[in-house]
Structures are given as C-alpha cells and as structure tokens.
Amino acid sequence: MTITIYHNPRCSKSRETLAILTEQGITPTVIHYLDTPLTIEQLQQLYRQLGYNNVREMMRTKEQQYKEQQLDVETLTDHTLFKAIVSCPKLLERPIVVNSDNDKAAMGRPPEHVLSIL
Question: Which residues lie in coiled coils (predicted)?
Fold first, then answer.
C-alpha cells in the first residue's frame, strides 16, 4: 500500500493520524507541506481525491490569513482559493492522507477517519 500524509508535526491531529497509520503497520511518505508547499495541480488532485464539493472544505477558515485575504467571499473561484493555499500553505487543513493504490484521500479530522481509505 502506498500512503502519503500531508503533515504538520506541530499539529496534534496530524501527529495522532501519523500514529494511527504507524499502529496499522504503515510507514507513509511524510510531506511537510509547510516546508514544501503544494502546487495548484497537486491541490486540485487532493481536492478530487477527497471528494469535496467546495474548496473551503480543505481550508482552515478560522486562520487569520483567511480572514485578512477575505477568502470567505462566495464569488471567489476555486482557482483563486487554490492560489491562496499555495501562497499561504498554513491555510490547508491537515492532515490529509492519500492512498495512491485506490486514488482516495481522507482528512484526519478526526484522525480515525483516515482508516476509511486504507
């Protein structure tokens, strides 16, 4: 099984999700997305894999940068929201776990939710 986690080691949910994967005997590829920001194309792929209907579902809408950039304006395009995440990776909700074998992704909120794609 090929598993990737988009991880922030300072986030308790991200650490808990990584621990759950380890308990399952999985050694995932760990991407520290704050250090290695994703591209718009990578974000679009994650969005598709997550099966979301709104880009804001994968955004941290309570972050100060979200409010400062007025990203809550409903007329903003998906592309504009993806660009905001690229320019400020902190806006990406975490953790996200991807199973490349079945092309599915899950948000680790709660951490146990990632078990659904294994």
Answer: 52-79
Task: Tell me the β-bridge partners of 7.
Answer: 32
Give the alpha-carbon dihedral of 24, 28, 31, 32, to 10 degrees. Answer: 40
Which are the contacts of 18, defined by CB distance < 8 A and separation ≥ 6?
A: 5, 7, 28, 30, 95
How confident is the model over 67-106, as pLDDT tens digits? 999 999 999 999 999 999 999 999 999 999 999 999 999 9
Tokens 């005997």 belong to which residue? 25
CATH number of the domain that 52 lies in? 3.40.30.10
Catalytic: 11? yes
Q: How many structural domains is the chain composed of?
A: 1
pTM recorded for the entire structure: 0.95
Domain span including residue 104? 3-117
1, 7, 8, 11: the active-site residue: 11
